[in-house]
Amino acid sequence: MLWFARPPSASERDWLELGRIGLEAAEGEDDSRARTRLLINTGIAHRALNNFSEGLDALGWAVTLARGSDSRFDEAHALNLIGLIHLRRRDLDLADTHFGQALSLYRDLDHRQSTATVLSNIASTRLSAGRLPEATAFHRQAAAVHRDLGDTWQHALELDHLATAVHPKDPQAAHTHWTEALTHLNPNPYSDPRAMAMRSRIEELLRQPGDRGMLPYLHS
User: Fold this and answer.
1) Distance from C-alpha of 161 to C-alpha of 178, rounded to nearest angstrom
2) Where is 54: in which H helix or E strand?
3) What CA–CA distance (Å, rounded) separates 74 from 93?
4) What is the mean pLDDT of residues 2-15?
5) pLDDT of 122-142, one tens digit each?
6) Span 203-207, average pLDDT
7) What is the pTM of this model?
8) Which of 83, 136, 142, 161 reaches 20 to 30 Å from 27, CA-CA?
9) How deeply is 97 buried, as exposed, middle or buried, from its count of CB atoms within 10 A (0-12, 13-18, 19+)?
10) What pLDDT does residue 10 have?
11) Average pLDDT, the chain
């Protein structure tokens, strides 16, 4: 199970060497599934290191192998990661295409959590392209999926993104979305630094809704 061997203390550069060794072993065993997942993790590592060309190469091979073995979830995962690299590089049309392919697969598989993630990534792409109404629509869809799944943290996060998208044309709607996000954050024991920073930022936004609504957000 080497393709899952990503200890938290290991750097991405260290993992790349482990991944290379694992790929050689998987090729020797002719284990297509292991090769696919190792290539996916190799692509993740290269993306974290901003080695975008190498990441795209690894993930492209992962897509090919996944299709050959009918591993549709792995195919969707790799396509979404390719989209994230293109989004980072601001190749927005390519990002949108790959996210769309991943979305179709996840929906066919009825994998709702991953569907919501890709909907949010599509929204980010449309927002980067200045297509605010479309970004808003995709964020609404993602928020609805997280709400239905009962995932309060992701729902709050998506409401924050939705508020950012609608704020330029509808500050009052943005205020409503931020207020709802805060209601999900406050009664829950989210005490990690990211959650605390998000809570503090939204509280500040709600105190000054007219001035601070276009703070950027990032996807990972």
Assistant:
1) 9
2) helix 52-68
3) 22
4) 57
5) 999 999 999 999 999 999 999
6) 88
7) 0.85
8) 83
9) middle
10) 55
11) 86
Query: Which of the four pLDDT bands, split at 50, 70 and 90, describes residue 75?
Result: very high
Helix/strand/coil for 117? helix
CB neighbours of residue 107 within 10 Å: 15
CA 195, 199, 204 angle in degrees (round to 5)? 150
How many other C-beta atoms are found inside a 10 Å radius of the C-beta of residue 57?
15
The rounded distance, in Å, linking the Cα atoms of 45 and 47 is 5
Q: How far apart are CA 32 and CA 161, in angstroms?
A: 38
115: nearest Cα among 87, 156, 73: 73
**pLDDT of 83 higher than 60:** yes
Alpha-carbon dihedral sign for residues 144, 145, 146, 148: positive
| Distance from the Cα of residue 19 to its chain's centroid | 22
The span from the CA of 133 to the CA of 93, in Å, is 17
Q: Which residue has the tokens 């709400």?
A: 147
Instruction: Judge residue 170's burial from the number of C-beta atoms within 10 Å of its C-beta, 0-12 exposed, 13-18 middle, 19 or more buried.
Output: middle
Interatomic CA distance for residues 58 and 52, integer angstroms: 10
